[in-house]
Amino acid sequence: MRSRRHVIIMARAPRLGAVKRRLAHDIGAVAAWRFYRTTLGAVAARLAGDPRWTTWLALTPDRTAHRRPRLPRLTSQRCLRVVAQGRGDLGARMARLVRTLPGGPVVIVGSDIPDLGAAEVAQAFRALAMHDWVLGPAGDGGYWLIGAARRRGLPRGFLQGIRWSSRHALADTRRNLRGARIACLGRMVDIDTGADLARWRRCAGRPGSSFSRRRRGVP
Is the separation of the CB atoms in 144 and 113 below 8 Å? Predict the structure, then answer.
């Protein structure tokens, strides 16, 4: 029986020219597409096979959710449920998913975090056992993870008015959740630019690092 915990991977359908445009500006569209597709496949493979939760791949544009994307390293598609993100900005789409999935705690992660694995998601669920919300800060002022315990009703407009893709996203979200019990995880690197990718590659090359252990297969 599958767990009542839920993990949602927010992703854009991995089509050439439609993903990681800031990264593509720095390294080229083909290289950016390969990086994104490989990273998405690696993260999905790490999370989807874990029996502690149900893993959902939430895709945009919505029409792409009717056909499962073929991703490298994802050997079994049966463990991954595919849904459409729906309309609206990022906050509206995430809020809709949080409200409509079956009961139990839910964690949402991005698709451009090459070092994300089951350990980080499990840590988030442990935090939700004692908190209402959990956030995983990113170095640019945003966040790589948000999770809700969903033990009681969700606050109205909890993801409205967020300045997405800016250094204010985390602060705006914390403002909307004022009064709730919030846990914070450690920082992780999400790859948006060529500089981010170069920095991650340098870290991944350090012997014994968690980066190097998970880098296999990620360009």
Answer: yes
